[in-house]
């Protein structure tokens, strides 16, 4: 029996049924690319385990055979992160889709990797709890977003989705299970990572290269009764950022976001179109919640006062009146329209990539101007500078992201977009921003600029946890 | 008339699939937010190569650009399974919001046709029923002459008149009680109705769904010629599959125009109701309703800007006409004594019965598991004793599902309930 058949057979024995394993190129092709510009690469196997023990056996097999393994939940990360750089086994975790616990008193839930935003949103709504729903696909995994520093509708108030993690169970790249947070001390205590050492950091933001998270505890705050969505516009990002920085110091916002004119179009115009004269270049919204009417009133009052005082000082910021329906879209998350990429790709034609970044807000305008120059003047065809900025909790930095659609069936245009994105990434890195969920092409740029001690530490951690370098190899471009 | 387009033509749309995965499950914000499984094929196989229209865009890309070696018999077999084990229910289509949306169902069938032309389809089971249809004009392997055995007890049968009842193969051979109920309802309502007798051939749906083209065309031509020659004003059918083919596809694919208006029995009954001609007696039952895909979302009409006048070339604008969702419900709700409770998944988000797309013969396990899931959904609704559906094929498969579960759930055709109410 050749190696391919032997491994197939062992995988089948592990998961108990041929149905849950494939080494067919037909199936593997469907895991070879995603919506991003990252080129396709084929895995040799796909396996669908349902238990921790099954995953452990797969990991042990992969170590014995020196085969790469790539955890996969829905593959919607927009960074080619599940594309197997060096082939190997895709571990598709969608059969592990149980919501194990929703504890409304201790305000946490325990979920498996395959639980989707849509499913959890349905269940949490029933108990008036919520989570940081991204504007991503409803079918994508809550766990995968959280462990990769996902951003959601409550990031302004509570922090990134990774900051909502309360405990986790992980299968290490060598096959042992480990728990971090309170559940490590008592199996039924999933309420907190602290005050223990932050070992969760070994598995957050690592893009599936340090272990497979099999259970995740997450904080699920209650839904307040009162909500107000303040909307505003400004002629330029300097003004917009100044207003956002000044209001965000109060930490009154759950979501505080502004988008360039091109991103406010549904869908993003492809290729570039001129903004109509007179239209504000930036529009924003601020979602504020209150548990009491008074609390909300105070927030709204402060919001209006900050706008007024900014205007007095010559800022072009102004409150706007937008239709209720488009306001609702800001809180009605997960969103099918955004998640389905309708507002991003419908015109562009199937491909989407971005530099999505964490960047100090006082650098936003500087980077945006350079991005505009690249997209509008240096590419052919020119592309829309469809940019979003969002203040995170802590108010001093936030998301700066450039959504870039492109047509999948026109390779030259796809290359044009990919080239523009990487050029923009370089500008961003040089200004001090850091991309999240970075494709390999970004990782090379990051490493070139990184402190050698940082790269060395990454290698040491990888060597310690993953001595055979089997976990999603290539993603960090160091091993 | 649209004519069949080759697979390459569809690539302008399926290459616009962003791989977002929205088609893998049904979701609506609400409030309350609702989530539901929608893809019978994906739910059964779980691999992403089987899930939703996302998988089909991957597969079409692989086929057209030789990303997999389709000369290898093992790969041919895998490709056949991935493409032919889909129920072509269109559940995925209802979720997608990109320009691929309007084309999804037609495209999946075109993939099948492409594979048929490459010798990678149809499946063994489909090949077998194809031969039966050619020989005896039905896919069940029964003789053509026995097609009308159900009519033996029907008195005063005519072959001309105002309205012709197109029974279809399933009602004629396997669910004769549905055919008899339809006949009985037409008679009770004083309709001047007729049958095609031995001139009724399979509508062609099972062959079209399998990716075949020439054989269904012959059947279509035969049926259209006969109905037109006889001068019928109305064709009534109680089968969702026949309804789709007769009312939409004959003209769409082959430009074959029926002079008669085509009505599903539920439309016929609703028309009667609106004119005050439907007096229904009490039937005590708590029921739910299963939407047949072919009558529901398959009959949605999509506005597409092919010329680029409103948006851009090929952009999907909107669904400007929805399928038959309310009509059968209106009829059902009009029966006194019937307590109607909606399934959790309904209308555009209905879960397929599992029988479509040739699956019942080619992948019976997928068909049965899907039916069981649907029956279990009905079982969860308090007090519901019957699933009502206006399609003999759905009724058959859901009935098989109920039987396999040992469920007390009864599965009946809408026309049977109406027949009962007309007594
Ligand atoms: C239109 C659109 C908008 C988006 N908006 C947002 C947004 O607002 N905020 C946001 O955060 N994201 C956003 N995303 C990105 C993405 O949808 C989310 O991050 C999503 O939750 C990822 O889930 P997935 O199931 O697709 O993960 P995958 O793509 O399958 O996996 C992501 C990464 O996690 C790893 N991984 C998966 N499971 C495990 C596991 N169990 N253990 C260890 N590693 C694992 C994978 O190897 C991969 O590296 C958006 C995406 C799209 C398409
Ligand atoms: S078919 Fe539509 S919904 Fe499905 S992945 Fe493609 S674009 Fe998304
Ligand atoms: S048509 Fe139905 S079975 Fe086929 S992929 Fe779409 S949802 Fe799944």
From TrEMBL, chain A:
The keyword Oxidoreductase applies. One of its GO terms (biological process) is lactate catabolic process. It comes from the Archaea. Its cofactor is FAD. InterPro entries: FAD-bd_oxidored_4_C (IPR004113), FAD-bd_PCMH (IPR016166), FAD-bd_PCMH-like_sf (IPR036318), FAD-bd_PCMH_sub2 (IPR016169), FAD-linked_Oxase-like_C (IPR016164), Oxid_FAD_bind_N (IPR006094), Vanillyl_alc_oxidase_C-sub2 (IPR016171). Keywords: FAD, Flavoprotein, Oxidoreductase. Pfam families: FAD-oxidase_C, FAD_binding_4. GO terms for molecular function: D-lactate dehydrogenase (cytochrome) activity; D-lactate dehydrogenase (NAD+) activity; FAD binding. Residues 38-223 form the FAD-binding PCMH-type domain. This is Glycolate oxidase subunit GlcD. It comes from Candidatus Methanofastidiosum methylothiophilum.
TrEMBL record, chain B:
GO terms for molecular function: 4 iron, 4 sulfur cluster binding; metal ion binding; oxidoreductase activity. One of its GO terms (cellular component) is plasma membrane. InterPro entries: Cys_rich_dom, HdrC_iron-sulfur_subunit, Helical_ferredxn. Residues 164-246, 287-398 form the Cysteine-rich domain. Pfam families: CCG. This is Hydrogenase MvhADGHdrABC CoB-CoM heterodisulfide reductase subunit B. Keywords: 4Fe-4S, Iron, Iron-sulfur, Metal-binding, Oxidoreductase. It comes from Candidatus Methanofastidiosum methylothiophilum. PANTHER family: IRON-SULFUR-BINDING OXIDOREDUCTASE FADF-RELATED, IRON-SULFUR-BINDING OXIDOREDUCTASE FADF-RELATED-RELATED. The keyword Iron-sulfur applies. Belongs to the HdrC family. The keyword Glycosyltransferase does not apply.
């Amino acid at each position: 029996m050749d190696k391919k058949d032997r491994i197939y057979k062992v995988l089948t024995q592990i998961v108990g049924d041929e149905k849950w394993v494939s080494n067919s190129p037909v199936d593997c092709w469907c895991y070879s690319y995603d919506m991003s510009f990252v080129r396709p690469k084929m895995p040799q196997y796909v396996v669908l385990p349902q238990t921790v023990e099954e995953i452990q056996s797969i990991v042990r097999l992969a170590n014995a055979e020196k085969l790469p393994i790539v955890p996969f939940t829905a593959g919607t990360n927009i960074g080619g992160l599940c594309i197997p750089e060096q082939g190997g086994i895709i571990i598709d975790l969608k059969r592990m889709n149980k919501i194990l616990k929703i504890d409304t008193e201790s305000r946490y839930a325990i979920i498996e990797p395959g639980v989707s935003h849509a499913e959890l949103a349905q269940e949490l709504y029933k108990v008036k709890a919520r989570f940081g729903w991204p504007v991503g696909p409803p079918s994508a995994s809550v766990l995968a977003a959280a462990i990769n520093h996902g951003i959601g509708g409550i990031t302004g108030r509570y922090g990134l989705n990774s900051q909502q993690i309360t405990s986790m169970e992980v299968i290490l790249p060598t096959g042992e299970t480990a728990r971090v947070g309170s559940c490590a001390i008592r199996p039924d205590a999933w309420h907190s990572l602290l005050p223990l050492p932050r070992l969760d950091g070994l598995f957050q933001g690592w893009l599936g290269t340090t272990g497979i998270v099999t259970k995740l505890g997450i904080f699920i705050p209650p839904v307040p009764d009162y909500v107000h969505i303040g909307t505003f516009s400004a002629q330029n990002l300097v003004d917009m950022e100044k207003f956002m920085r000044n209001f965000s110091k109060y930490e009154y916002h759950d979501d505080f976001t502004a988008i360039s004119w091109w991103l406010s179009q549904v869908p993003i115009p492809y290729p570039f179109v001129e903004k109509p004269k007179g239209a504000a270049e930036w529009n924003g919204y601020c979602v504020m919640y209150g548990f009491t009417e008074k609390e909300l009133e105070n927030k709204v009052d402060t919001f209006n006062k900050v706008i007024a005082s900014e205007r007095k000082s010559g800022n072009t910021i102004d409150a706007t009146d937008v239709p209720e329906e488009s306001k609702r879209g800001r809180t009605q998350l997960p969103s099918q329209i955004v998640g389905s990429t309708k507002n991003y790709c419908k015109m562009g034609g199937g491909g989407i990539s971005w530099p999505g970044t964490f960047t100090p807000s006082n650098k936003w305008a500087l980077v945006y101007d350079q991005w505009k120059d690249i997209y509008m003047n240096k590419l052919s065809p020119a592309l829309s500078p469809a940019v979003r900025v969002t203040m995170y909790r802590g108010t001093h930095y936030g998301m700066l992201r450039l959504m870039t659609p492109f047509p999948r069936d026109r390779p030259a245009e796809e290359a044009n977009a990919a080239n523009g994105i990487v050029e923009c990434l370089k500008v961003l890195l040089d200004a001090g921003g850091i991309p999240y969920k970075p494709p390999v092409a970004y990782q090379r740029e990051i490493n070139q600029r990184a402190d050698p001690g940082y790269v060395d530490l990454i290698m040491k951690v990888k060597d310690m946890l993953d001595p055979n370098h089997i976990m999603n190899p290539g993603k960090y471009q160091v091993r | 008339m649209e004519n069949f387009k080759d697979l390459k033509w569809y690539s302008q749309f399926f290459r616009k699939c962003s791989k977002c995965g929205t088609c893998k499950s049904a979701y609506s914000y609400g409030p309350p937010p609702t989530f539901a499984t929608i893809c019978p094929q994906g739910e059964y196989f779980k691999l992403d190569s089987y899930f939703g229209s996302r998988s089909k865009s991957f597969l079409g890309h692989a086929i057209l650009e030789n990303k997999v070696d389709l000369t290898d018999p093992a790969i041919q077999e895998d490709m056949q399974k991935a493409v032919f084990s889909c129920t072509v229910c269109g559940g995925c289509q209802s979720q997608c919001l990109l320009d691929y949306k309007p084309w999804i169902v037609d495209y999946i069938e075109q993939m099948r046709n492409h594979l048929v032309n490459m010798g990678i389809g149809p499946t063994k089971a489909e090949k077998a029923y194809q031969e039966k249809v050619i020989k005896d004009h039905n896919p069940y392997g029964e003789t053509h002459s026995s097609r009308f055995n159900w009519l033996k007890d029907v008195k005063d049968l005519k072959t001309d008149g105002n309205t012709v009842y197109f029974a279809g193969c399933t009602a004629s051979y396997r669910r004769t009680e549905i055919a008899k109920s339809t006949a009985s309802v037409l008679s009770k309502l004083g309709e001047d109705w007729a049958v095609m007798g031995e001139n009724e051939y399979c509508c062609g749906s099972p062959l079209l769904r399998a990716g075949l083209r020439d054989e269904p065309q012959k059947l279509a031509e035969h049926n259209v010629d006969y109905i037109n020659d006889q001068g019928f004003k109305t064709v009534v059918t109680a089968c969702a599959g026949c309804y789709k083919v007769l009312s939409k596809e004959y003209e769409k694919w082959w430009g074959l125009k029926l002079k008669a208006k085509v009505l599903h029995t539920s439309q016929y009954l609703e028309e009667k109701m609106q004119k005050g001609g439907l007096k229904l007696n009490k039937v005590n039952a708590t029921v739910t309703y299963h939407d047949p895909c072919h009558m529901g979302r398959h009959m949605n009409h999509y506005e597409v800007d092919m010329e680029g006048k409103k948006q851009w070339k090929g952009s999907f604008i909107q669904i400007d006409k929805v399928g038959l969702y309310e009509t059968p419900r209106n009829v059902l709700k009009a029966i006194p004594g019937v307590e109607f409770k909606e399934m959790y998944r309904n209308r555009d988000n209905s879960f397929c019965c599992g029988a479509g797309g040739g699956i019942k013969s080619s992948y019976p396990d997928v068909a049965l598991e899907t039916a069981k899931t649907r029956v279990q959904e009905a079982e969860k609704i308090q007090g519901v004793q019957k699933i009502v559906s206006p399609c003999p094929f759905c009724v058959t498969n859901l009935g098989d599902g109920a039987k396999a579960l040992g469920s007390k759930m009864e599965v009946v055709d809408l026309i049977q309930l109406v027949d009962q109410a007309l007594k």
